[in-house]
Specification:
- The protein is of the alpha/beta class and about 625 residues long.
- It has three domains: about 220 residues, Rossmann fold; about 230 residues, Rossmann fold (3-Layer(aba) Sandwich); about 45 residues, no CATH class.
- The chain is about 40% helix and about 20% strand.
- The chain is built from 17 helices and 24 strands.
- The chain has a nine-stranded mixed sheet, with helices on both faces. Strands 16-15-17-18-14-19-20-21-22 form a nine-stranded mixed sheet, sandwiched between helices. A two-stranded antiparallel ribbon has the order 1-2.
- α14 runs parallel beside α15 and α16 packs antiparallel against α17.
- The protein starts with 13 loop residues before the first strand and ends in a 15-residue tail after the last helix.
- About 35% of the residues are buried.
- The N terminus and C terminus are likely disordered.
Length: about 625
């Protein structure tokens, strides 16, 4: 899972081996037209490495080669390599020449043995085939028969001179024990060659572990350290650490986790190409969340890879059906591929190589690994941690959205630590826990971190049903968090209290409406009484004005009458005026009289209006104020 690199012009010419992972750590392959030494103990993969390199050169680049076997016969080599599907018998007729160079001890000891004759045969075959590669497999078997250190060194130098003259890319394999790989026996060969590759096989907690290390490479850089290797269906594979460059693509696209509640807590879902770690104790529904994510990815039409450890895919699909997660249809359609591996018989490096091969083959956009912590059960913990880190970086390099589950470390179910120490690498960390109270065990979900998102910091209760997982708000009371039945009881109690408060509010509202209507009626009655009093006051005022007008009229009349009586005796005493007509009684001026009449008329009109206005509208009933 390492991005291909282009090597700078002018660098040491190299020949690719075609072995997954090795060309990356060697920065391009083996030195071209030079000799490489492959050494290691029995069963470490030396012969497979050399043979696979020849097959890749002959098939992919049409470069013929020669394989010289000093230990195994050609028929045995064909039989052993049949499991990899290379088709060596057919390839031997066209691209690779196999030479059985095994000699009996009697032949070697019968005289002074030299490689001159064998090398002459190989030179002729090289010219005939146009071979660019040659492998001397198990040359230590031949040298051990000489039983003379000086003779061994002489023949090795003879072989080196022949290789330099023929300009072929050569691989020499030899067996050494771990403690003898440095200086004893064939240690001098490491100084003669340009590249040295050491294979190692050892037991870690009862599990066989194979590793590869490049200890020398003249004129070239290479990745230092040991790298896991394993045998796959197509040959040898080397696990690489990934690219050192961390400038990866950062996408702002969001993908759903599978249910709305968690997406909302994450601010809209997960970022495309991000890695999410789900931790928790056994039974906290880590697999359920992972399965929901896989189902959601398949519904979007995205190819998904589901990797499970210590549990088969069919059992996982059956168990997820109980919570409404259906994966069978996606498996049949080819969108979902499930792989299950056992951790008690396979080391973490082999699992990493298998996962890498599956990713390269299926090309998924989403990956689920459930649980990654299982790889720490066998082998060294440091090795498992290294595998976990490489896996995280590998899927990130491929811009794959990944959900990985892991058991929490320690005996405390509330702990938030991972044994593999991968929580710092993950972009999002979701933690599941238990809350045991009131005779119940309830699940809680919280988001510890989610880079680049404004995620929720609240604890939510995770509820499983036939419709799938759902998140509900927990109830906090007096500093305590309530879940399950206690939460339901509290919610029911609160619901009853709300109903009671609502009923009380309606009752109080009705009372206030009745009081408002009563006050309005009283105000209307008071207003009528006020209007009545005002009308009576106006009536009394008009009556008083009318009385004043009548008194003025009577006074004027009396004055007129008095004036007439006073003038009557004067007329009798003055007969000289008898002939004159009597003067009419003096009347007020017309304007004064009209004014007084108009005022009296207006007073009478006001009286009539007052009598009408004070009569209440009682719909036929008598006014209680006025009596019967």
């Amino acid at each position: 899972m390492v991005a291909k690199k282009k090597f700078a012009a002018g660098a040491l010419p190299k020949a690719a081996t075609g072995i997954a992972g090795f060309d990356e750590i060697s920065r391009g392959g083996l030195p071209l037209n030079r000799t490489s030494l492959v050494l290691g103990g029995p069963g470490t993969g030396k012969t497979v490495f050399a043979l696979q390199t020849l097959v890749s050169a002959a098939r992919e680049r049409r470069q013929p080669g020669i394989f010289v076997a000093f230990e195994e016969g050609v028929a045995e080599i064909f039989a052993n390599a049949a499991a990899f599907g290379w088709g060596l018998p057919a390839l031997a007729a066209t691209g690779v020449f196999f030479l059985d160079a095994g000699l009996s001890p009697a032949v070697v000891r019968s005289g002074d043995f030299e490689l001159t004759g064998l090398l002459a045969i190989l030179a002729a075959k090289k010219k005939d085939l146009g071979a660019a590669w040659i492998v001397f497999d198990g040359i230590d078997v031949l040298l051990s028969l000489l039983q003379n250190r000086d003779a061994e060194i002489r023949e090795i130098y003879r072989l080196r001179a022949w290789l330099a003259h023929n300009e072929m890319t050569a691989i020499i394999t030899t067996k050494v024990n771990g403690e003898l790989a440095g200086s004893a026996n064939y240690g001098f060969m490491q100084f003669m060659v340009d590249c040295v590759i050491r294979f190692d096989r050892r037991l870690e907690q009862g599990v066989s572990v194979r590793r590869l290390e490049i200890t020398k490479y003249r004129g070239s850089d290479f990745a230092p350290g040991e790298f896991p290797l394993s045998f796959g269906s197509h040959g040898l594979q080397v696990a690489t650490p990934g690219t050192a460059d961390t400038r990866l693509e950062a996408s702002s696209e969001r993908v759903s986790t599978g249910f709305e509640g968690l997406d909302s807590m994450l601010g809209g879902g997960l970022f495309r190409g991000s890695s999410t770690l789900i931790t928790g104790a056994p039974g906290t529904s880590k697999t359920t969340l992972a399965g929901q994510f896989a189902a959601s990815a398949c519904k979007r039409g995205e190819r998904t890879l589901y990797i499970s450890f210590d549990e088969g895919g069919e059992r996982i699909r059956r168990n997820l059906t109980s919570v409404g997660i259906q994966l069978d249809g996606h498996v049949k359609s080819g969108l979902l591929r499930m792989y299950s591996g056992r951790t008690d018989v396979t080391n973490p490096e082999d699992h990493l190589i298998s996962i890498t091969a599956l990713i390269d083959e299926h090309r998924p956009r989403c990956v689920v690994i459930d649980p990654l912590s299982a790889i720490a059960r066998t082998g060294a913990l440091s090795s498992a941690r290294a595998v976990g880190n490489r896996l995280f970086y590998g899927v990130r390099d491929h811009h794959i959205t990944t959900v990985i589950t892991s058991l929490v470390g320690g005996d405390d179910p509330q702990a938030e630590a991972t044994e593999l120490q991968i929580s710092t690498i993950a972009d999002t960390w979701i933690h599941l826990s238990y809350l045991v109270r009131g005779g119940e065990r309830n699940r809680a979900l919280t988001i510890i971190k989610s880079r680049g998102t404004r995620h929720s910091n609240q604890v939510r209760e995770l509820v499983l049903s036939e419709d799938g997982p759902a998140l509900v708000d927990v109830y906090s009371s007096g500093g305590e968090v309530l879940m399950g039945t206690l939460r339901w009881e509290k919610e029911a109690q609160e619901g009853a209290q709300k109903l009671q408060r609502r009923a009380d509010f309606k009752h109080k509202r009705s009372e206030l409406k009745f009081a408002e209507a009563d006050i309005a009626a009283r105000m209307a009655a008071l207003q009528l009484d006020l209007d009545k009093q005002r009308a009576e006051l106006a009536l009394y005022t008009d009556d008083d004005e009318a009385r004043h007008v009548s008194a003025d009229e009577r006074e004027s009349g009396l004055r007129g009458m008095r004036s007439a009586k006073t003038q009557a005796p004067s007329a009798l005493a003055a007969p000289t005026a008898a002939t004159l007509p009597a003067a009419p009684p003096r009347r007020p001026a017309p304007s004064t009289r009209v004014t007084r009449v108009t005022r009296a008329t207006r007073v009478n009109a006001k009286r009539r209006t007052a009598r009408i206005s004070v009569k209440p509208e009682t719909n036929g009933e008598k006014d209680p104020q006025r009596g019967p």
